[in-house]
Amino acid sequence: MNRLPVYLLILIMLLACSSTINSLWINRETDTRRWVVNNPLLASDIRVLDVKEEESDGALIVNVLLKNGWRMPIGGKVKMLFYDKNGVQIDDPWGWHQIMLESNQEQWVKFIAPKPAAEISRMKLMIRGINRYSSSG
Questions:
Q1: pLDDT digit string (tens) for 93-123?
Q2: I need a labelling partner for 125 at 20 to 30 A (CA). Which of 25, 72, 76, 94 fits?
Q3: Residue 10 host element (H or E)
Q4: Contact assessment for residue 79 and residue 43, using Cβ atoms and an 8 Å cutoff
Q5: Interior angle at CA 76, CA 103 and CA 35, nearest 5
Q6: What is the C-alpha separation between 19 and 29, in angstroms, rounded?
Q7: Distance CA 34, CA 43 (A)
Q8: What share of the chain is helix, strand, coil (3-state, %, to 5)?
Q9: What is the per-residue pLDDT across 34-47, written as a single tens digit (0 to 9) for each?
Q10: What structural domains and CATH numbers belong to the chain?
């Protein structure tokens, strides 16, 4: 029996899981967005449907609408990095946010910039690897 197809499938799955971060760059100055897809499987699992910015007393609040693209519950982590006008990353006091999404569920995630809105030129939304979870826990 030829086991080569089985080994190839396992290798492909391992390679797909080894690179688990996808990111969305948001340039506030040019009002453009650019996806960087490191893991196509993850890009279809957790989708970004919308990104809304608002300012409150000079603070930048970014709301991101995520959707589970699977027919089963999944989990993952999201993080927003902020960059100043010189392109320097601003220290991130918040870290990763854990998310758990039921099948086809949409959920808003809120991020608050660590500096005033006027000082933020770009943002990078990062989505880290998924893990299937059981909702019967």
A1: 888 999 999 999 999 999 999 999 999 999 9
A2: 72
A3: helix 4-18
A4: no
A5: 95
A6: 30
A7: 13
A8: 20, 50, 30
A9: 888 777 766 677 88
A10: 20-132 (2.60.40.3230)
